[in-house]
Design brief:
Length: about 240
């Protein structure tokens, strides 16, 4: 069983409540800080996710843990009929709504406050579902994946982008130093929430990746699971079918 990592170790709130509070607190400077911390590479990874989703010409798309909606804006270029960006953090969504409005995507894009473990949609609603850097924040990973499976159409595609740990020397050692020391230090300098970026690095290090995560997907209703490490294994793109 994976270790549960929470943002605020001295809080009695559940992981879900703590994650909501944390992302609300860092929502205003999240985009800029995220670009700095990832050196902009995260946008390259997201483009790859969009390319995989586009292979199936989806008309109904759901982006879970959408944050400020980066992936929603990028997937709009696939010309779907509808894209829903769902997140548990109202603060992050407020930033996302402004970006959607500025991009004139109000007619097809909808930003919704919601819980990944109790999705407010009918069974078999979406052709494609994406989650980028969000599954490790689920309060109950199995329940969240079961819900995704429920609202995904038969033969629909799930694409997940998540952090992972490089396994080869010297990248492994360099990555651990960066995530354990550099990332939290940058976060503390530029974010008013001093523990948020500690949590982001700790949760990334504790989360199962590669074949271990494929097995979790299979257990929760998915097949044809594949994973592709990117940038020396510092992140992984998973694809799965219902």
């Amino acid at each position: 069983m994976q270790k549960e990592v929470k943002p605020y170790k001295d809080s009695s709130l559940s992981k879900k409540e703590q994650v909501t509070e944390m992302f609300n607190s860092i929502s205003k400077n999240y985009d800029g800080l995220n670009r700095v911390i990832s050196l902009g590479i995260d946008m390259k990874w997201r483009k790859k996710v969009v390319s995989i989703v586009g292979e199936n010409n989806p008309k109904q798309i759901l982006d879970i843990a959408t944050g400020t909606g980066d992936l929603v804006l990028m997937m709009a270029k696939l010309n779907p009929d509808r894209i829903v960006g769902l997140d548990i953090s109202p603060g992050m969504l407020e930033v996302g709504k402004e970006k959607v409005k500025k991009a004139n995507l109000d007619e097809i894009a909808e930003m919704v406050v919601g819980d990944s473990e109790a999705l407010p949609f009918e069974d078999k609603t979406f052709d494609a579902i994406t989650v980028s850097f969000g599954v490790r924040n689920f309060g109950n990973l199995d329940q969240g994946l079961k819900e995704i499976c429920r609202v995904l159409k038969d033969d629909g595609v799930l694409v997940i982008l998540e952090t992972s740990n490089p396994t080869k020397f010297p990248v492994k050692q360099g990555y651990k130093f960066y995530t354990n020391y550099v990332l939290p230090t940058i976060g503390k300098l530029f974010s008013k929430d001093k523990v948020a970026y500690n949590y982001l690095s700790e949760s990334a290090n504790a989360f199962p990746f590669g074949e271990a995560f494929n097995n979790i997907l299979r257990k929760n209703g998915f097949n044809n699971t594949k994973h592709e490490p990117v940038t020396f294994g510092s992140a992984t793109i998973y694809t799965a079918k219902k």
